[in-house]
Amino acid sequence: MAPEFQKNTMYVSNELESGDVQKNFDDDGREKRTGTLLTASAHIITAVIGSGVLSLAWAIAQLGWVAGPSVLLAFSFITYFTSTLLADCYRSPGPIAGKRNYTYMDVVRSHLGGVKVTLCGVAQYANLVGVTIGYTITASISMVAVNRSNCFHKKGHEASCSIESYPYMIIFAVIQIILSQIPNFHKLSWLSILAAVMSFTYASIGLGLSIAKVAGAGHHVKTSLTGVVVGVDVSGTEKVWRSFQAIGDIAFAYAYSTVLIEIQDTVGSSPPESKVMKRASLAGVSTTTLFYVLCGTIGYAAFGNNAPGNFLTGFGFYEPFWLIDFANVCIAIHLIGAYQVFCQPLYGFVEARCNQRWPDSKFITSEYAVQVPCCGSYNVNLFRLVWRTAYVVVTAVVAMIFPFFNDFLGLIGAASFYPLTVYFPIEMHIAQRKIPKYSFTWVWLKILSWTCLIVSLVAAAGSIQGLATDVKHYKPFSTQQ
Q: What residues does the Amino acid transporter transmembrane domain cover (predicted)?
């Protein structure tokens, strides 16, 4: 047992005599959870709806009117279904009265054990690191887009308007260094709610601009049931690779299982966490699916087979420039919050391990009260300050050195989507419910698992092909075009 937890338990034992323990602590001696359906839903929406929603028009353009929306709906169902299985595994052996598991690795350890715990940790934390680096790049692109939008408005749409993204990566990193001092997920709900509002705002702006473009006089673009046309828009090889990439983008656009258990660990115990989390997952996935389908299909109707990768930062729209600016600011604010949602589990993992390894180190364990103007007293931990600052700096530097890291992120997503979103939830459900081998339920769960494995392999192939193309044109510290 971790020394910190032992101290909490001793403190709880003393408080039991005064009868005040239930006011501040849960039954396991940890700080009392205050999360609700609203805060859990906000965390999910912040994690799921990224600026990638604005690239779904491109994905639909690759797949067409039939396969595009079908794939969107299929993966929304798969994500929701597997998230309900994972939510039931938060406690073990039963979903209502069992022992709490605080992280995804703890859940896998309780239900499966063995080498699968290590595989889970590698997949989860590699994905979290990749996402935070990717968000640094994407947020800087949105900030650059604000300046470019103003430039195009003043100098015309044909102007080069080349702007470096590195100063904006530094600004983003400084903001994250400050926000990273938020101790844990429990204190993050206000930021997630703000980020969720921002995601709705810029998605709605993109949707509104697309509708206006479709309804505009003389609007005519080429669309088809099967997407981009071989021999006209792309070559046969490009069609295959782009389709693979589009399927992967859609599958990963829904994935939030990397942080689901950590979100569930913020929810109060009454009503049961699993029931609240299932409702939060339904609200989150339903909301994102609505926006995904609308932005994807109406965006495709607006731009046709020439849909840009992102119609706000990629300048599918130039006017009204002030609205484009506002939408890109909303994207940046959303990604500031989303960065924290994805890095907090990693912060917690490292800090818990260090507390266990060096329980007597004051540098790691001691808290110092600091008076913050207008905010009152705040507890500062020197290890948390140093390690989290170092992490943000490293992710920012990697983002600067590898401007095509989003293709790496696609590969990381392909590698982590299957084990974290599909394989582990299904395997733990089978183990928890003791489903007989070769029974009907066992067979169809395995078919779902294998199908998603094929999707991950296909998407990984598309990402590797994209990486190979990018490396050929790689110029470190290049100017944003």
A: 34-467
Q: Which two tokens stand for residue 203?
A: 């998605």
pTM of the model: 0.83
- Copy the structure tokens of residue 302: 């607006």
Over residues 6-53, the pLDDT tens digits come to: 444 444 444 444 445 456 677 666 777 778 899 898 888 888 876 567
State how far the Cα of 128 lies from the Cα of 47, in Å rounded to an integer: 11
pLDDT, averaged across the chain: 84
pLDDT value of residue 306 = 86
DSSP structural state of residue 226: T
pLDDT of residue 135: 87
Which three-class secondary structure string do you get for 24-61?
A: HECCCCCECCCECHHHHHHHHHHHHCCHHHHHHHHHHH
pLDDT-derived band at 1 (thresholds 50, 70, 90) equals: very low
Helix axes 424-433, 104-111, angle to 10 degrees: 40
Q: What is the pLDDT of residues 64-117, one digit of tens each?
A: 999 999 999 998 999 999 999 999 999 888 778 788 888 899 999 999 989 999
Torsion of CA 309, 313, 315, 318, to 10 degrees: 150
pLDDT in tens, 254-276: 878 888 998 998 888 778 889 99
DSSP-derived 3-state class of residue 99? strand
Max distance between CA atoms of the chain, in angstroms, equals 79
Q: Count of H helices and E strands in the chain?
A: 17, 4
Neighbours of 366 (CB within 10 A): 12
**Helix or strand holding residue 370 (H, E):** strand 368-372
Residue 282, token pair as written in the block: 């339904």
Spatial contact of 111 and 89, defined as CB atoms under 8 Å apart: yes
- How many CA atoms lie within 13 Å of 56's alpha carbon, on the beta-carbon side? 35
The DSSP code sequence of 249-300 is HHHHHT--HHHHHHHHTTB-SSS-HHHHHHHHHHHHHHHHHHHHHHHHHHHH
SS3 call for 234: strand
Q: Please tell me the number of Cα atoms within 13 Å of 216 on its side-chain side.
A: 14
Distance CA 426, CA 257 (A): 12
What is the C-alpha separation between 335 and 45, in angstroms, rounded? 12
Provide, for the chain, the percentages of residues in helix, strand and coil under a 3-state DSSP scheme, each rounded to the nearest 5. Answer: 70, 5, 25
Single-letter amino acid code for the residue at 233:
D
Cis peptide before 93 (omega within 30 of 0): yes
Q: What is the pLDDT of residue 27?
A: 65
The pLDDT score that the predictor gives to residue 52 is: 65
Distances (CA, A) of 54 to 69, 81, 357, 363, 464: 15, 25, 44, 44, 23
